[in-house]
Automatic annotation (TrEMBL):
It comes from Lentinula lateritia. Residues 113-123 are annotated as: LID. Its EC number is 2.7.4.3. Transmembrane segments: none annotated. Residues 38-61 are annotated as: NMPbind. ATP binds at residues 16, 18-21, 114. Its main location: cytoplasm. Belongs to the adenylate kinase family. AK6 subfamily. Keywords: ATP-binding, Cytoplasm, Hydrolase, Kinase, Nucleotide-binding, Nucleus, Ribosome biogenesis, rRNA processing, Transferase. This is Adenylate kinase isoenzyme 6 homolog. Pfam families: AAA_18.
Length: 179
């Protein structure tokens, strides 16, 4: 966002790719304050949904209500938006879009540990194989702000967060912001 003192970062990826873990670690290690917003949790907490789908065990998000809720927060900058999709967010919002990727058999195991229904595991695995979230990000934002990162090991997590922290430092330097 123009004139913000801290960047807006979207961390996205298929469920189970490590978005929340990355976002929390980044919030802790960032050289400037970044507020981690787990969008799925926000939807539930603020009632920003139309209904609940029992079969898929998920909420049908009211996108207008969600965007209205987030707009004033994002305008201030200093936010990490953590969600399984990104294409509903206006192009003007993010300074960086990180798409986390995970090998599909490992992703399957992670989703099984969450006790997801088989149908939901299959759909999410297929989405990962077909690069659905990555393609959404590439179609929705300028190529120079979309970064694809592997998220399979603790080493990946640490390297990814270090890389994003370096990006934040560069963002600060380019804008002459005092951290």
């Amino acid at each position: 966002m123009p004139n913000a003192q801290s960047p807006v970062i979207i961390i996205t990826g298929t469920p189970g790719t490590g978005k929340s873990t990355h976002a929390q670690l980044l919030a802790n290690e960032s050289p400037v304050p970044l507020r981690h917003i787990n969008v799925g949790d926000l939807v539930k907490e603020k009632g920003l949904y139309e209904d609940y789908d029992e079969e898929w065990q998920s909420y049908t998000v009211d996108e207008d209500k969600l965007l209205d809720e987030l707009e004033p927060i994002v305008t201030e900058g200093g936010v990490i938006l953590d969600w399984h999709t990104c294409d509903i967010f206006p192009e003007r919002w993010p300074d960086l879009v990180v798409v986390l990727r995970c090998e599909n058999s490992q992703l399957w195991d992670r989703l099984e540990k969450r006790s997801y229904p088989l149908k939901k595991i299959q759909e999410n695995n297929e989405a990962e194989i077909m690069q659905v979230v990555l393609e959404e990000a590439r179609a929705s934002y300028p190529a120079e702000i979309v970064v694809e990162l592997k998220s399979e090991t603790t080493e990946d997590l640490e390297a990814n967060v270090t890389r994003i922290v370096e990006w934040v430092k560069s963002w600060i330097r380019e804008r002459g912001v005092d951290s």
